[in-house]
Amino acid sequence: MRFDPFGDPFRSLDRLTSQLVSGARTPMGMPMDVWEGDDGYHVALDLPGVDPGDVEISSERNMITIRGERRAEYEGAGNVLLAERPMGRFTRQLQVGEGLDTGRVNATYDNGVLRMTIPVSEAAKPRRIEVQPTSGQQPVSVGASAEQQSQSEQARSEQARSEQARSEQAQTSGAGASTGRSS
User: What is the pTM of this model?
Assistant: First the structure.
């Protein structure tokens, strides 16, 4: 995921200018936290006073877009004495890496907080690759743990002992057969 800690300074200036010229209150950016967990990336956005039905989340390629609207509770009221809370439509976009599965994003909304989980795609997860042996060689494991390597070494030792026992048995039976012929 990309994160710009300084934001776009012109966006804030444009929003302030728009507020001053129009007299309307435009919504501020949604405060957001993003962290990586074992099951992928987690996103939490503060959306107080927003109806979950007014939140839309879409994904296209490596871009996740969150749109919503906060409506004034006093719409249609005759005389509004004070209105300081930001109202209106808002949009937030997250550009994610190719290794995330944007088709399986999970989103929940509880107590004014939108939570999303973006899983890592199966293709991007680390995996073990076994190298196949050519004739007479043992397989080699890439990325095997110490325990797996120990088990592999034990299996090779047992196989070598078994082959040696067969070889000795073949020599013994071969020697007996040649002795039997000479009698």
Answer: 0.54
